[in-house]
Q: What sequence folds into this?
């Protein structure tokens, strides 16, 4: 076959080839569209009445139940990447909690979500560049409590609930000021047996024990070192150290702790150790080990814990 014949053959095949490629591309696009999620599971619930404001750098949203209410106040400290308006998100666990209160006919507390932004940890003022929020939140809560007391009356109980980053924050706040809160619910909290200042070998061993995602663990390590500068500062905020201060405390908050076994942040090991130690110290503790990943939550038991009448 000469060169001219080859050119004619190539020309005849070009159009069918282009048509075939176009059909394959269209089929691929159609398949991708067909197999993509067609929607998002949302919770059926009546959202709380939400009003928001600021106190200095603290953003807050007050969420008042539309149905049966309890004379209690819950402070919600959100997870990383969220904000003060998270409580009414219909695709989040907070909506499930509200829906469960409504399904079970339980009186719902007023929930106040607090936020300093999308990423923050409560630590006392020290050497680390982002330390100091733990010193600020106490006076700000005093002012916010006074404002709410004037509007709705003094609550029967004050409680804390938080997930992931917020789970660590509620433990730091609640265990640092045990007389201030009656109950603490820490969901998939960032509790670790090893300091972020431990040796590389120790941290590698922790990754192997917990099955934590190395990229996620690096992010946790980096965030921690932005808020604490050394082991001494870490000991002032680590829940496994703070729990020991409850041994002789005249008033001790009840604890609700939960975590998924396959938490990719590696939080299960430390949270279980905290629950075990709290129970050994005689602290009223509910421990919910769950089969699941990061922030698997037992909604019904959490809803009951935050609405219990006793």
A:
């Amino acid at each position: 076959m000469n060169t001219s014949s080859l050119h004619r053959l190539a020309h005849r095949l070009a159009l069918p080839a282009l048509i075939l490629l176009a059909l394959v591309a269209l089929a691929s696009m159609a398949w991708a569209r067909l197999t993509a999620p067609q929607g998002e599971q949302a919770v059926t619930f009546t959202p709380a009445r939400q009003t928001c404001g600021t106190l200095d750098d603290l953003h807050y949203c007050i969420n008042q139940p539309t149905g049966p209410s309890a004379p209690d106040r819950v402070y919600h400290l959100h997870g990383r990447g969220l904000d003060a308006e998270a409580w009414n998100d219909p695709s989040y666990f907070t909506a499930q909690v509200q829906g469960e209160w409504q399904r079970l006919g339980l009186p719902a507390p007023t929930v106040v979500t607090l936020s300093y932004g999308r990423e923050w940890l409560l630590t006392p003022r020290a050497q680390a560049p982002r330390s100091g929020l733990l010193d600020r939140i106490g006076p700000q809560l005093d002012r916010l409590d006074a404002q709410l007391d004037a509007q709705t009356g003094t609550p029967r109980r004050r409680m804390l609930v938080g997930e992931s980053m917020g789970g660590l924050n509620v433990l730091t706040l609640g265990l640092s000021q045990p007389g201030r809160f009656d109950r603490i619910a820490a969901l998939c909290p960032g509790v670790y047996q090893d300091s972020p200042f431990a040796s590389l070998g120790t941290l590698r061993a922790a990754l192997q024990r917990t099955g934590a995602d190395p990229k996620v663990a690096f992010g946790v390590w980096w965030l921690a070192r932005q808020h604490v500068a050394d082991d001494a500062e870490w000991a002032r905020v680590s829940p496994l150290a703070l729990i020991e201060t409850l041994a002789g405390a005249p008033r001790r908050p009840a604890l609700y702790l939960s975590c998924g076994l396959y938490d990719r942040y590696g939080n299960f090991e430390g949270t279980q150790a905290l629950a075990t130690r709290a129970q050994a110290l005689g602290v009223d503790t509910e421990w919910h080990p769950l089969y699941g990943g990061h922030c698997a939550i037992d909604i019904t038991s959490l809803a009951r814990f935050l609405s219990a009448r006793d």
Remarks:
- The CA atoms of residues 161 and 191 lie 15 Å apart.
- The first strand starts at residue 49 and ends at 55.
- The domain at 49-307 is CATH 3.40.50.1820 (Rossmann fold).
